[in-house]
């Protein structure tokens, strides 16, 4: 067994079940807290200095409005369907796990070797996420959802995006997300949603 094998086993067999217990879905190095308004992700990544004998790794957390991410995909095809869990696009809230741990210098890495017992290491990783990082991400999500979302109707053009930004009055069912529209754009047909109304102000989310 190499350190890469031990790393994969650590995430799959030991960290993964703990993240599922916290309500996340996913596998391996990419995990998501289900939300129809935001991408809330946990992404693990190994250091480029990792070797067959030792893998050093950390985790990134993201809270990003799905409407904002969809706006980045104008013209269509510029962006993947979902943001990569460990890529910082300069959008929304994105933090390294170390920045969320008390007493940390802002970065925190774990290491695993083929000889390490995975259970104690997994417990340490899960404690950092469960006790500090995930609560921080959930607070950001709650704060963003507490504000009245703007209408995301593109009033720019096919090759550039400018949102309407009027206060939203209606939430429609889009592909894996809520699509918000003001009263002025609510009756327009759209490829972003199927017309199913999920809520009206003040019950948009």
Total count of helical runs of at least 4 residues: 3
Number of domains: 2
Q: What can be said about the biggest beta sheet?
A: 6 strands, antiparallel
Report the principal-axis shape.
elongated
Distance between the termini: 47 Å
Percentage of residues in strands: 15-25%
> What structural class do you assign from the helix and strand content?
alpha+beta
Q: Which stretches are low in confidence, meaning pLDDT under 50 for 5 or more residues running?
A: none
Order of helices and strands: HEEEEHEEHEEE
Q: Give the beta-strand count.
A: 9
What is the average of the pLDDT values? 94
Estimated helix fraction: 25-40%
- CA radius of gyration: 20 Å
Please supply descriptive tags for the structure shown above.
single chain, 205 residues, alpha+beta, 2 domains, 6-stranded antiparallel sheet, 3-stranded antiparallel sheet, 3 helices, 9 strands, DUF4304
